[in-house]
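Listing S7. Sequence submitted for prediction.
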Amino acid sequence: MKKHLIITTALLLLFSAGSLSAQEKNKKELSTVKFETSIDCENCVNTIMKNLPFEKGVRDVKCDLATKEVTVQYQKEKTDTGKLKRAIEKLGYTATEKGEKQKPAGNKK
């Protein structure tokens, strides 16, 4: 009887430890990026909020009309900032990753 109890307890501990490490791994895999965009009205915000979450790997989207910023939380193994930028541009808006320097028009370098 004691052996059965010990084995059951050990199995429960293993399963609970395994699920915790899986949860931690999922949290570590998420990244966040901010884009400066050309959104200028509530309709723009609604367009991004309705469409961007359907992009592969996107977990959360926030739009701030006052600062014209779009913040995206995503899974690195499923997408990257370049794909997210292109997705915003496909919707008809400009998107520059926050912290990324904009290149002057006509300069190919």
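Caption to Listing S7: primary sequence and predicted structure tokens for the chain studied. DSSP finds three helices and four strands in the chain. Helices lie at 2-28, 42-51, 81-90.
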